[in-house]
Design goal:
By secondary structure, the protein is mainly β. It contains 2 helices and 10 strands.
């Protein structure tokens, strides 16, 4: 027991005798990202595989969750920044994605900007929608569609007192649907199931300007 106490005491003395490690001001390791033609590039991505095993109502699972088997790009991010703020074609570029490949909910976003000259923003989303509507007329109503939305916005002189901007948006829904119709005798006639292909499309175009003058901001926008 005395021998263990003496060894412990010696170890303590040696520990207290070590010099204190202070943080250094020198850069450790390589700089974050990679440099290329005057730009700093940072990127990351995550790839994965989903496995599906449903025990119970597959219709209920699809209406609530709807994830399926397969390989996909779970998420990614790419950043390209001009090191001196004066890139040839752009100064900043950021691209992010999520769920690409086979997820029921996917999205991507892109931003490109050149200081004081222009800015472009793009967003894209996809959603798989499934609704068996089993409680309606013995399951003869259903909807199995994919909705896709995209937005484009372009701005000239984004930091100036006079700005011009234009944009475009698109909303589409495609897939199959099942409904019922009453034929031959009004409300007393027979009810028949009808299956149809669904295609709904909406486009929007916009253009406008913004002026700042004497502490006021004037905005004019035209949509089609």
């Amino acid at each position: 027991m005395k021998r263990l106490v003496i060894i412990g005491f010696l170890i303590s003395c040696v520990s207290f005798a070590q010099p204190t490690v202070a943080p250094t001001s020198e850069t450790v390791g390589t700089a974050r990202g990679d440099d290329w033609l005057g730009y700093n590039i940072r990127q990351s991505f995550e790839v994965g595989v989903r496995f599906l095993d449903v025990d119970g109502s597959r219709e209920k699972y699809r209406s609530d969750v709807n994830y399926r088997n397969g390989l996909r790009l779970l998420s990614s991010r790419l950043e390209v920044h001009s090191k001196d703020g004066h890139g040839r074609f752009f100064d900043d570029l950021v691209l992010t994605t999520m769920g690409l490949g086979n997820d029921p909910y996917e999205n991507a976003a892109l931003k490109i900007e050149k200081n004081n000259l222009y800015r472009y923003d793009f967003s894209w989303r996809l959603a798989d929608y499934y609704n068996p509507a089993l409680a309606l007329v013995n399951g003869n109503h259903a909807l199995d569609t994919t909705r896709t939305l995209q937005n484009h916005d372009f701005t000239l002189f984004p930091t100036g007192k006079f700005r011009l901007f234009a944009g475009y948006s698109r909303n589409t829904q495609t897939g199959t649907g099942l409904t019922t119709v009453n034929l031959f005798d009004g409300h007393l006639g027979s009810v028949f199931p009808v299956s149809s292909n669904i295609r709904r499309l909406q486009n929007e175009y916009r253009a406008g300007f913004e002026v700042q003058f004497a502490g006021f901001r004037f905005i004019g926008v035209r949509n089609w």
